[in-house]
Write a structure and sequence with these properties.
Length: 681
């Protein structure tokens, strides 16, 4: 592991550089042009200006303002779970997140490393709901989020340094540098964040570094993007229903903690022919995680985990523009290949890792071929057709357990396809529709169970590896979009019918393939300018996720009596039926802006309540945020306030095994953050 002080030192060095650079002449490297015909149907784009004006403090906060997206915190980590279109606890595994087109999702049950991507480093975010499987593969059933980081800016040599301080002893130091020449460009962003956070035993120390080095010629170009991140986090654990009222900020796990070190790099090259463009990306990601959980089971058992995962990915692709039968077409063909290596050791304590209880080694190989064609059927109509064939091979082995059940492998050939049509009835009004099929492959954590087999005679349990069938979905969506010079409104209705959905069975404490499930809903979002100074935005989501049929068969963990839970017609837990967001951004004066946002999340069933029998549901809540910013020459001052009404709420809660109470992770109370930033150019 590299030292966390490295990132802090770089941030300080960049801060000094912001005031020490000498004058010079620079020009940016060019980017790939975006053509209207190639845009995904129904995509939502969050621009740099919208990010700057938003009250959001983190990327998940920003995303949660948009229709069909919810977030939940079920660990006390800043890397919260994100869910598109109602998948509940498995939302992370059904939402595909990309950073500059490269997958951030891991092949384990971990959340995306949102905290490693500062908002200041983002140029724009593209949200494609219920799409992306053809181009990017598994895990995109709920949707795809593509985060585009900032590149060297045309004709600019600049640097920025910023410092923040706020509630819960929160401090943040950020710095960035942008340099570009005629054919080369370089940008670097670093930050260091520390906070005691709202809860006891929830201290966070986070460092990040993102870099971009590029060269561009008349027809060719190369880009090297790289990043480092580290995190040290204390874990406060959940609060019982009683503790939420008496001591919501307390902790019952004062010894629990986690830490993470990550690094990644992507080398991209392109070459433009007269009517075609060839591109190739080679990427590498390395993540090391450790964690300690004392008495995590409630029966005196503790565990220390040490996990190391790497992935290599190669993604060549070709884009060809052509005319056929008098129609303009853009054809994209490509291949994805990646190799994941995963190693995890578990012991009761760090000192016992020399003789671990678990020594799990796993490997996953993916190879896919895809084709996507966009055709302009007229000046106002666009048709997209695409298909993907993928080969997935996964193997896992607990090297501590010699039993055959602890060693298994599987090979499958999941497929995806899409058909999308968009027609502009007027320059302002368009209708669109999409049909498709998507899939998800089980992660290593979902096919491995440390206590998967228990001998009923001796009560001795041992590990098992049980490969699951790929989850498949048939997806349908229709929508309308209205755009004018001052506003935008988009409405969508969708339905997804899933088979073999991968889900945790709380009765047997194992992951399983479910009987058929279904998601359907309505999403509405829009924005409107009122004159030159006021911008409004809003979104509304109505969603339903149900088990279409099937049962849970298992045993009661206390009495060991057989349990049979009928699922047909029951609601999937952790899916709010309704949610809404609205906000305003007001240019109070020439250099002063005030932004505000309200968010509402409706009731939802508790996790582990698939039978929908627990008395009551998770309470609905409303939150209010605001931000005031002022520019004075090279300085920018910002005061942000979150949860201004000091609402006591939680975004995740789980029913206990007996069905008599629940545990939850309370969210932070009212908090403020003041920031001063200086920009040099």
């Amino acid at each position: 592991m590299y030292s966390k002080s490295v990132i802090s030192a770089i941030a300080l060095a960049l801060a000094a550089q912001a005031f020490a650079q000498e004058d010079g002449v620079v020009v940016t490297a060019t980017r790939f042009p975006e053509k209207k015909l190639e845009h995904p149907v129904g995509v939502t784009v969050i621009t740099r200006e919208q990010i700057t004006n938003s009250t959001a403090a983190t990327l998940p906060d920003l995303l949660s303002r948009y229709a069909g997206i919810t977030t939940r915190n079920n660990t006390g980590s800043p890397d919260v779970s994100i869910d598109m279109r109602g998948f509940g606890i498995s939302g992370d595994q059904n939402t595909l997140v990309l950073l500059d087109g490269q997958r951030l999702n891991d092949n384990e049950l971990t959340t995306v490393r949102w905290s490693s991507i500062p908002l200041e480093a983002i140029e724009r975010v593209e949200i494609q709901r219920g799409g992306g499987a053809v181009l990017y593969g598994g895990g995109a059933t709920g949707g795809t989020i593509n985060i585009i980081t900032r590149s060297p800016i045309a004709g600019e040599k600049s640097a920025t340094v910023a410092a923040s301080y706020g509630t819960y002893n929160t401090s943040d130091l950020r710095a960035s540098v942008n340099l570009a020449g005629t054919n080369t460009g370089f940008s670097l962003t670093a930050n260091r964040h520390e906070s005691d956070n709202y809860r006891a035993n929830n201290r966070l120390e986070q460092g990040n570094l993102l870099g971009d080095l590029r060269w561009t010629g008349d027809r060719a170009g190369m880009v090297l993007k790289f990043g480092l991140d580290n995190q040290s986090l204390r874990l406060p654990g959940a609060r019982t229903g009683v503790q939420l009222g008496t001591d919501p900020r307390g902790t019952a796990t004062p010894a629990d903690y986690s830490a993470r070190d990550g690094k990644n790099a992507t080398l991209s090259g392109r070459y433009e022919f007269d009517s075609a463009e060839l591109a190739l990306d080679l990427s590498y990601r390395d993540t090391r995680r450790i964690g300690f959980f004392e008495d995590y089971s409630g029966f005196g058992f503790s565990t220390f985990t040490d996990t190391h995962a790497t992935v290599w990915a190669l993604t060549p692709r070709l884009k060809k523009q052509y005319r056929f039968l008098g129609l303009d077409n853009v054809l994209v063909v490509g291949m994805d290949t990646d190799i994941w290596d995963y190693n995890a050791q578990r012991a009761a304590r760090f000192e016992q890792l020399g003789a671990p209880q678990v020594d799990l080694a796993a490997k996953q190989k993916d190879r896919a071929y895809y084709v996507q064609n966009h055709v302009a059927l007229g000046a106002a109509t666009k048709l997209t057709l695409g298909a993907r064939l993928q080969r997935v091979e996964i193997s896992a082995n607990d090297r501590i357990n010699p039993a055959s059940a602890a060693n298994a492998s599987q090979g499958r050939n999941p497929r995806a396809w899409e058909l999308a049509l968009r027609h502009n009835f007027t320059p302002a009004l368009a209708l669109f529709g999409k049909l498709g099929a998507s899939f998800r492959v089980a992660t290593v954590d979902e096919i491995y169970n440390q206590f998967g087999f228990c001998d009923p005679a001796t009560f001795v349990c041992s590990s098992t590896v049980t490969p699951l069938e790929p989850q498949t979905s048939r997806d349908r969506e229709i929508g309308a979009e209205y755009r004018s010079g001052a506003g935008r409104l988009q409405a969508r209705m969708y339905r997804m019918d899933l088979r073999n959905e991968i889900h945790f069975n709380a009765v047997t404490f194992t992951n399983m393939n479910l009987s058929p499930t279904q998601r359907e809903g309505f999403e509405l979002e829009g924005s409107q300018k009122l004159g030159e100074r006021v911008d409004l935005f809003g979104s509304y989501t109505r969603a339903q996720a149900v088990f279409r049929e099937g049962v849970y068969n298992g045993f009661d963990p206390i009495t060991f009596a057989p349990v049979r839970v009928e699922l047909g017609g029951k609601n999937v837990p952790l899916v709010p039926r309704s949610s809404a967001k609205m906000g305003i951004s007001w240019q109070v004066a020439g250099k002063t802006r005030l932004s505000g946002a309200l968010g509402y999340v409706g009731k939802q069933y508790f996790d582990n309540d698939q039978a929908n029998t627990f008395p009551g549901q998770m309470a609905s809540f409303v939150t209010a945020d605001a931000k005031l910013s002022h520019v004075a020459g090279p300085w920018t001052f910002t005061l942000a306030g979150n949860n201004l009404t000091d609402k006591k709420y939680y975004t995740y809660a789980i029913r206990n095994g007996a069905g008599t109470s629940f545990n939850a992770y309370p969210m932070a109370g009212r908090n403020f953050l003041f920031t001063a930033a200086y920009r040099w150019q």
